[in-house]
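Human: My hope is that you can spare some time for a protein that puzzles me. I am handing you a single protein, as its sequence and its fold in token form. Could you go through the record with me and say what the backbone is doing? Take your time, and here it is.
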Amino acid sequence: MSNKRDSEAPLIRIRRRDTAAVAALGSMVLILFWLFGELGLLETVVAIATIAALSTFYYLTVRTTLNPLPDPASRREHEASGPDSPANAKLMLDSLPIPVLLIGAGGRIEIANPAAREFLGLGPVTGHLSAVLRQPQVLEAVSAALRGQTVDPVEYSMMAPVESHVRAFVAPVASQGDPAQPWRAMLVLSDETSIKRADRMRADFLANASHELRTPLASLAGFIETLRGHAKDDPDARDRFLGIMFDQTERMQRLINDLLSLSRVEMDEHVLPGGTADMAAIIDDVVDVLRPQITEKSITLSVEADPATAMGDRDQLLEVVMNLVENAIKYSEPGATVTLQLSNDLTRDQAERPGLLLGEGASRLTLAAPSSDAGDRFVAVRIRDAGKGIERRNLPRLSERFYRVDGQKSGPREGTGLGLAIVKHIINRHRGGFTVESLPGAGSVFTVFLPVMKRMPKTSQTPRA
């Protein structure tokens, strides 16, 4: 008890003394009034009890509101739990979605928030910055900051396994109480891939749209001028020209839609999608949507589908299957058979292995390859058409924008040349694979395969430098 009394703050001890003195004085006055007959016994007892209760309440209130830090130990405890405490600073640092690192002597990582660990793929034990970030300009900036120098932000880019753009902010931080190492470096990494992609998307859209729309717009202008001139009273010419104008307008609409779709996919290509997709249900939806085209060309669609669930964005995977099946129907001869095969739980070698054989002499090319571990499993979708086939020299360019194979034109509903480019970028975003096998005279087989069991960690969203 004496220790507790000794630890009381001087202000509280003074208030307690004053409160007790006032209560005692008031009680003595009431007792004197009772002795001289001025108050009855009951009134005196009630008044003394009231004074005691008010004094106790006042004492407790003062103790709660005015209790300062009694000693250095309590003061340190208060500072450790205050708004500027190291614990709160660490909590705020860990909550930041931006990668932040503190680099000490020799380039060793002393502190890295969870966003930085995810961004750089750091394990539980941090090492030297140069082991996880192989960018000479950033390392030079960190070395300058460790000498106390102020440096400008550094930008760097990586193209594999996916394109990414990062801006690094480096600042010197004065060390506290460490004369051997007076400076440390704070490194903040800002992923600006989306910004760069958005800028390029706008430039590419304007360039591609202006180039590809020039021909159909010129055709429309010519037909409109003809219809306003000597053909305005010719019903047969008017009907024929209006039909061509309608086809050209549809083509421009498809082109703009495909360009917008491609731009959206490219913008998010570096971000691994979340969720899962039922591939068998996707195939059923695609068949239902394309049923009119299948019936129009008297195509026989053979579907072999195992139950399979892939990791990824369902809408984008639906677009992949839709593009490939639509191409297979478009380029197959009327009355031919198109085969669609869905296989589950495959290794990478099994997924890349041809599943719908075309025969000897077929050419095969990988258009997109996943970066996977040996234990990863995949779901594969293979589509075989009954078209003219594609020569080997044309295979590498199939996923280029607006590239069309000679002899593969499909009439008034000719494609925009963007479908396979869209497929490739979607598969890249899902960290999957995309292959083509073709034999002139026997058709082509397009295969896409996606991870299904072991998902790549989030650190792959922006690959390590």
Q: What stands out?
A: The longest strand covers residues 164-174. The chain is about 45% helix and 20% strand. The first helix runs from residue 2 to 6.
